[in-house]
Amino acid sequence: MRIAEVSKIALLQSMVLLSWQYERPGSSNRPDTTMDYRNRINQAMRYMRAHSDQQLCIAAIAAQAHFSPFHFHRIFSAFTGETVGEYITRIRMAKAAKLLEDGCSVADAGAAVGYQTTSAFIKVFRKAFGMLPARRPGREKLRYPPGPAKTKRPAGTLQAAIRELPDLPLLYLSKKGVENEFFNAGATFDLLYDYLNQHELSSHVQLRLGVLRDMELLDTAQWRFDACIVLPEALEHVPVKPMERCLISAGKWAVFLHKGPYDTLWQTWSQAYRTWLPYSNMQLREVPPFEVYLNSRKNTPPEELLTEIHLPVRE
User: Fold this and answer.
1) Which of 237, 241, 255, 290 is the S-S candidate for 211 at Cβ 3.0 to 4.6 Å?
2) Is 175 exposed, middle or buried (0-12, 13-18, 19+ CB in 10 A)?
3) Buried b (16+ CB within 10 A) or exposed e, 41-74
4) How many CB atoms lie within 10 A of CB 131?
5) Where are the domains of the chain?
């Protein structure tokens, strides 16, 4: 398939409700692959607890769970409800609080839970507990940082369509840094469309995509959100900084339809990794997953927004 066929994809996406295939979980005589995923995640968590005094990285943690570093963060978050960094911080703060209660000094407590400087430890401790760290022998015990709040999971079985897509040449604008797992994708797209309007390209947009990159890094401040569009092949536009070009390579994708506000997209992402992937008999390719926005927040009520989530898969 050539990129000239991208316009056909856009047409098909206007008919998404007709294209879904029902993906049934595994039969009762097959091993519980969800439990296998949970066991592997638990092994990674045990490794993080045992090495909380060391400098940790996604590659080493993912290896304990036999997952690819490329997708481990997404799988971990789907099963636990928090990022790897949030989990590490939580177990470190719980350990540090216990050390302080036992009479340990602030500097020693910080070093014992993996912080290279006391100032870095103090900053994180204060954010976790709302107070400065101090020796606490005989004083009231600190309330340890809680785990992620349990949220209501969407009911029902997730549906997926398996699609072969051509190369997607993208024009994109990046925003680096993710705070509290949220990023202002809308503002990034606004900047992108300012550029498109200046260059009279808005009417030529065929697809609008969002790609969250660099999740194999532990620090969410290093993650990057790309607001992307696909233009017709015949339109030979040379991007001007800060715009860039990149390519999402052709391949097979598991596609999930999400209907509703963008701030609930995590629910479908979570279901895809937690309840669909373990039973799918498919493996993830080393390609970033992405979102395709089928309508616009500018003229669509939040509850009517349609977004396709694309997971790169192979047999």
Assistant:
1) 290
2) middle
3) beebbebbeeebeeebebeebbebbebbbbbbbb
4) 9
5) 3-24+155-314
Q: Nearest-5° angle of CA 279, CA 283, CA 286?
A: 145
Residue 168 host element (H or E) = strand 168-176
- Strand segments, DSSP code E, in 61-158 are none
In CATH terms, 3-24+155-314 corresponds, of 3.30.565.10, 3.20.20.80, 3.40.50.1000, 3.20.80.10, to 3.20.80.10
Residue 267: φ, ψ to 5°:
-65, -45
Q: Which residues pair with 213 in a beta bridge?
A: 224
Tokens of 292: 């395709």
CA distance 180 to 173: 21
Note the pLDDT tens digit of each residue in 156-204: 578 899 999 999 999 999 988 765 444 578 888 999 999 999 999 999 9
